[in-house]
Write a structure and sequence with these properties.
2 domains, alpha/beta, 391 residues, six-stranded mixed β-sheet
Length: 391
């Protein structure tokens, strides 16, 4: 999850959740047996349908960018038996949020409230205000309210002991826009696949450069999984193409200001760059600013999907490939929680609806009537977008 920058249609994600699996029991993703103890959460059954659901997301994304379809990396994909959590409503869902520290996070919280209200769910909300230590206390307070389920935007692994407490109390835990890989106690994770995003961007760059050229790589915050996992996936793919020369890898903390500074330095030191691999549209905005200020041709760029970048991309005719990291993911996770509380099997890793597109589809996603702070495409109703002063 992106701690400082940000912590699609619902039916597609929910449809995946409702598929019933059948087969032998296996550990769920991120569930390990290192302690020798049985997982506190429900058993997870392997399913070819689960793997097919994830493979479909990869195939659809790669098809849009016109790159070869790859086999997704090996991982445990399965459906969790949630029958032990079944109970009658009305429900109270505790939501440990990153907090509305920026426009992405504010949109995320707003969508969670929207989905909760639409489903007549009581939401016990706690904002960490971007503070991982505060989130620990928030989860303690939320569990003291004895909610029916716990939804978390994890900011650090410090909350894992509390996640275990929740599981021991038969309170299902769902994670959104982040990962807690070293615990046995999560029922489901709703998060855009970092490996997919990083690989997609690398595939597209290789295609544009016909497998040959100098590139730079710019990531967000050092050590944060959202940055590191995408970078490692892209680096591994580029390694298959010796004609692609990675001249440098830098970090910009997902700050347009720092991105401009980094890009300005990079373009001077490496004047022959043909592409800049990035995981963020914040980075892309900085790259465009640096190159236009230097009166240099803008290289191919990649990243996520913000109105701010699309505005400058349209102005300067930037060539790009983007994959949205939707603020709606935690709202989609509310629907997953409701399936759990109804005792229906859920996928242990739910891929959220996420737009993938290039400069050729810019006008389809760009919202000139909205501010730079809008993350596109948005599923928020126009009334809420107006309330948030996004449109």
């Amino acid at each position: 999850m992106r701690f400082t920058r940000r912590v699609g249609a619902l039916p597609a994600a929910v449809a995946i959740v409702l598929v019933v699996a059948a087969s032998g029991s296996v550990p769920a993703f991120g569930r390990t047996d290192r302690t020798g103890a049985d997982p506190a959460s429900a058993p997870c059954s392997d399913s070819a349908k689960a793997k097919a659901a994830i493979a479909k997301v990869w195939k659809q994304s790669e098809k849009i960018l016109g790159v070869p379809v790859l086999k997704p990396p090996a991982q445990t994909l399965c459906f969790v038996d949630t029958s032990k959590y079944k109970k009658s409503g009305p429900y109270t869902i505790a939501f440990a949020s990153q907090g509305p520290t920026n426009s992405w996070a504010s949109s995320s919280d707003a969508y969670v409230r929207y989905v909760a209200n639409r489903n007549h769910v009581k939401l016990a909300y706690a904002s960490a205000n971007g503070d991982a230590t505060k989130q620990v206390g928030n989860v303690q307070d939320l569990l003291a309210q004895n909610p029916d389920a716990l939804l978390i935007q994890p900011m650090s692994s410090a909350i894992q002991a509390l996640v275990h407490q929740a599981a021991q109390r038969n309170i299902p835990v769902v994670v959104c826009t982040g990962q807690l890989p070293d615990t046995n106690d999560i029922v489901s994770t709703v998060n855009r696949d970092y490996t997919l995003n990083g690989t997609l961007f690398a595939q597209w760059i290789v295609k544009q450069l016909h497998g040959k050229g100098e590139i730079a790589m710019i990531s967000g915050i050092p050590g944060v999984p959202t940055a590191e996992l995408q970078y490692q996936a892209a680096k591994a793919f580029f390694a298959k193409y010796p004609g692609i020369k990675i001249m440098t890898h830098q970090y910009d903390n997902w700050s347009p200001t720092q991105a401009k500074t980094v890009a300005a330095s990079v373009l001077v030191k490496y004047p022959n760059l043909k592409a800049i691999w990035s995981d963020s549209s914040f980075t892309d905005v900085g790259v465009v600013q640096a190159y236009t200020a230097a009166h240099k041709p803008i290289p191919f760029v990649t990243g996520d999907s913000s109105n701010a970048f699309l505005r400058v991309a349209k102005k300067y005719d930037v060539k790009f490939a983007l994959s949205a990291y939707p603020p709606e993911q935690c709202g989609q996770a509310v629907d997953v929680v409701l399936q759990i509380l109804k005792g229906k099997p859920v996928l242990n890793q739910v891929p959220p609806a996420s737009a993938v597109y290039t400069h050729a589809q810019l006008d389809k996603y760009y919202r000139p009537d909205c501010t730079d702070n809008l993350w596109v495409p948005s599923s928020l109703p126009s009334a809420i977008l107006k309330q948030l002063k996004l449109c």
